[in-house]
Amino acid sequence: MRPSYDVVVIGSGFGGAATACRLAQGGYSVCLLERGKRWSKTDFPRSPAEVAKCFWRKDKSLGFLEYRAFRRIDVVQGCGVGGGSLHYFNVHLRTPAEIFSSRAWPREITRAVLDPYYSLAENMLDSAPLSPPAGRELPRRTSVFLAAASAAGRTAQLVPIGVYTGSDRANPHGGGAQSACDYSGNCMLGCDLHSKNTLDLNYIPLAEKHGAETFPLHEVERIEPIDGQGYRVTYRKLDSNNPRLSQPGSVVGRKVILAGGTLGTTELLLRCKFSHCTLPALSPRLGCRFSGNGDFILAGAMDTDREIDPGRGPSITAGVDCSTPNNRIFIEDLGYPDAFMWMMEGVIPGENRLISLFKAVSTYISSTLGNGSGRIGFEVDKLFRGGATTRFLPYLGMGTDAADGRLRWNGDQVEIVWSHRNSRQMFREMEQAMKELSRGVRGRYVTSILWHWPFRKLLTAHPLGGSFMGSDPDTSVVSHRGEVWGYPDLFVADGSMIPSALSVNPSLTICALAERVAFWILHGRDMGPHDPDRPATH
Ligand SMILES: Cc1cc2nc3c(=O)[nH]c(=O)nc-3n(C[C@H](O)[C@H](O)[C@H](O)COP(=O)(O)OP(=O)(O)OC[C@H]3O[C@@H](n4cnc5c(N)ncnc54)[C@H](O)[C@@H]3O)c2cc1C
Q1: Of 507, 509, 511, 516, which is best to mutate to test ligand 1, by the most ligand atoms within 8 angstroms of its C-beta?
Q2: How far is the CA of 510 from the centre of ligand 1 (A)?
Q3: What pLDDT, on the 0 to 100 scale, is given for residue 269?
Q4: DSSP H or E run through 357
Q5: How does strand 246-258 pair with strand 490-492?
Q6: Are residues 480 and 505 in the same domain?
Q7: Which of 363, 384, 405 is the last residue of a domain?
Q8: What are the angstrom distances between the C-alpha of 497 and each of 128, 251, 305, 314?
Q9: pLDDT, tens digit (0-9, with 9 covering 90-100), for 477-515
Q10: Same-domain status, 230 and 379
Q11: pLDDT attached to residue 324
Q12: What global pTM score does this model have?
């Protein structure tokens, strides 16, 4: 690593990968610091024992998934070169125009302004509705979800996803070999075929081709301004064999871009403001406007009138707009990886499971004693067939929650202060829509276990806000260009800059906003649809 760069980017998820790539293409020297590991496709967990190791546990294991539990809402997020793309469900939706017209957003950001950046991101992520690989049809879960919506009087559609289904190829952005999706449904556990268009297959290799240097296992702890020359970024270099061991180090960036994700970026800024006191003039609003994007996970329809086998196929394939006059609501089908489906099969007591087990064992014993046919295949087959999850249609709901949570510094780490009180009406309307979908396939609507009394808790995969955009430092943390109020050349480009729920999966919007942050740094203006300065994407 050199002692200084034009730009230091912290975090290599959607915001970090896009800014690093565009600024490197624009001729800047770029250093990309990422706390997680770089994963090759053969490293991803497949067996249950390996799955246990895929979690990030501070100072213990350096997996690519981090689950953080707070009082009223839990958060799942990514860590690794490629950030959340390593485990995400590949959906790329443009945020509805009316979201940007809410007062929470700076007036400079509209859907029309963002559309050219959305196009850039879609091109890089190779985003398209699922086209089944050769010899396959749409997954059963998709067809059942479409039928459920239609029976409920609604029209569901395939959503654009970044999943490759063609013949073997080299990724056009330079990220190596890809094979067609095999419907294993393991999107959340990393894709061992590289069918998922993760950021380490597109933005990151393109950035590296233009000279950007990526440093995995570098966790940033502090940012400090150095008189008119940028910022000193101090990190801990983690030892992959023993995460307790780390070496300190630092690098100077004439510009610094925070892209550590909603929790990562806001936590770092809170630490610099309150513990290190290196960025004391940060806005008093730092930490506000936290939103879970109205996520409602772990709900679904049980005992549907047809088999679904929900683990098969890309993890999300279709969605339906269930907005009401009060709220925007979007519901998608949701598949879980094999390992989770098997765990659910074991936990949910299946009808006749014990009887089948008893019959299999007694047939085996009597055959061993010379009294039976010796053919136990039939009983064993019944033991594994028709479990509770084969007729389960899981949902992911997203909607306009009130975005009134707060990320607070407790002296050691970030805490989330969150209540669903002001979002209750939206969740009621969302559950109503989920019940209608469930009736469409004669299923029994089951709600998230976390949502039951006494927990009344939510789980979000889409945390947003905390270091949010706005028109002035009294009411927001960064400008519409992502520059931190009071700290020139310090930028935020990730989910934390988003000031409201989006009501759809956020990665494409995060990417588009990051493209915009980079374009403004390079050109000092917005990009138009046919702009001669539009970045080259291949
Ligand atoms: C199971 C799951 C499925 C999802 N599916 C979808 C989907 O289908 N579509 C969609 O749009 N969204 C999806 N999401 C959400 C999506 O992954 C996130 O919204 C997105 O990754 C956020 O992008 P980001 O740039 O803000 O941060 P991230 O992608 O989270 O990247 C932040 C990176 O910064 C690193 N970092 C943090 N702090 C530091 C530090 N101090 N020093 C160095 N590095 C640091 C992290 O390790 C991480 O790699 C899903 C999320 C989950 C959990």
Answers
A1: 507
A2: 10
A3: 98
A4: helix 353-368
A5: parallel
A6: yes
A7: 384
A8: 26, 24, 43, 29
A9: 999 999 999 999 999 999 999 999 999 999 999 999 999
A10: no
A11: 97
A12: 0.95
